[in-house]
Each structure stands twice: as structure tokens, then as C-alpha cells.
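The record is given unchanged here:
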Amino acid sequence: MTSIGVIGAGSWGTALALLLYHNGHKVTLWSALEDEVTLLRTKRENPDKLPGVKLPEDMPVTSDLNEAVEGMDMLVLAVPSPFVRSTAQRMKTLVSQDQVIVNVAKGIEEASLMTLSQVIQEEIPQARIAVMSGPSHAEEVGKGIPTTIVVGARSRKTAEYVQGLFMSEVFRVYTSPDVLGIELGAALKNVVALAAGIADGLGYGDNTKAALITRGIAEIARLGTAMGGKVETFAGLSGIGDLIVTCASMHSRNRRAGILIGKGSSYEEAMQEVKMVVEGVHCARAALLLAGKYQVSLPIIEQVNEVLFHGKRADEAVRDLMLRDKKIENSDIPWE
């Protein structure tokens, strides 16, 4: 039996802990919040974050990081992206040589412009790092609804090890060596999903949503390939797959926050109402800084930043997107 520590008891961490438990592994779930630990120990459920999903009575829930990290065969790091570095710093002395850490948070650190796996590797150099992403809402994974996802790692051995632990009849796992591409797709789609939600909040329709998804993946791939990701990754599960589900589903906290912003709320008010970390807000500025660094045009992401942080009206942002200079859709296709 494999011992696994899940670091972070939010909706995603809890859903993955349950999946791994049902796969026959010994799982310990950790939270930094004492109130959350007490709630999960007594109710075996988090009704605010993951209603209707019950934890088994014999799954330990703890606030003791030593208990969740030391001696584990694998660690799943599932804290929100703004807390990845601080949590990794707390873990570093507890992690053994070559212990596997799977990061499932999605984001880019604004201060350093590093991906989250790079942050973890910097803080815990002795670990073997993998990442996991794809179209996968916690609300559905927690209920055993069929889901497909991709695991990325530098070595095939690490990726296949993680694949084997997560794979089940309801959770299909692919592997990929393109860690950077997976992480960029996972992070940047949250910003585009905010735009999709804003369009919904403005009362726009399916045409607008399809345009944002299609041109959004073009922006993600443009920046991602400029940074060294592979174009095939952005056409896969952590690219267009994750973008579709995040832009279309009401499970998406980024879309829900965007709807509120489109109706006139500030991003602070929207995040307060959603009651969970809205990763796209934290990633938006970092994405724009990366666009400047790599000299890449990201018009949708640029307008999201204007609405979030500079007081621009959402309808004005849409108008400016529509009235940009004429473009060719794909400059790589030659004319006769």
C-alpha cells in the first residue's frame, strides 16, 4: 500500500485525497486551518467547498505537517497558488531525497514570474517534481464522474509512477514530458475564463464565448511556445481541454467571478462572493508581465488586466477587442 500525503484540504485536495483512497492507497489529508481540520474530522465533509462529498472515517485529517509529509511515498501539493512557496518552505526540511511531489495548483508567481513547479524545485531541490492538470472540476472528481487528465514530469519514470497511482476506471491519466507547457496552459486559461465570465455577465451569447475560447487558446499557445512549451500541449488536455471546461462550467470559480465582474462588481467583491481563491486574478498581472518579457501580443489578457486593476468598464474592453486592427487568423498558412 502506497502512503500519500495530500497537502491542502480545499475542494481539489479533498477530491484527490478521496480518489487516491478509493484506489487503495493510505492517504493523509493536511490543512493549515485548524477550523477546517475540525470540520473535516467531525463532519467528514466540507459543505462550503465540496458539498455532498464524504471522507471515509479512517482517512486521517491533520494540521501537523510532519504527519502528512515525513515517510510518505508521494506528496500531492494542493494549496492555492499564492501559498505554494510559503508551504514549500515549511515542507523543505521534512521532504526526503527523491520524494515525489505532484503539484496540482495552477498559477504563475507574480514576483518571480516562475511556474509553480519551478518555485517548488527552488525551495525543495531534493524532491522529484511532477505536475497534473486537465479538465477536472473537483465537484465532479469527488463524485467519481469520469475525468481525463495529464501528468507531466522531467523523467518518464516519475510521470509513469504518478500515473499508476492516480489511474482508475473513472480517472484516466496521460503522461507528458512538457512540464512547462502543462503549467502555462493550466495557469493562463484561468485568465481567459475570467474574460468568458465577464462576457456572460454582460449578457453576451454563445458566439462571444466561442470567440474567447478560440482566440484565448491562440494567446495561450503564442506565449507558451515563446517560453519553450510545445504547441501540441496547448491542443491537449491542459490546453484547450481545460480552457473549455473552465470557460463553460458554473463549477469554475474564475467564470463565476467573471460573471460578477461583468455585472459591475470589483474583483475584490467577486472573490469575496465566490468564497474561494480565484486563480485567474492572481495570474493576470503575471501573464501580462510575461507577454512584455517575451514580446508577445495577448489582447484578451491585456483587457482583463484593464478591467481588473485599472477601472476599465467591461463593455469598453469588449469593444476595444472587437475594433483592433484587421488581422489574418493564421499567418503560417500561405496564400496561393
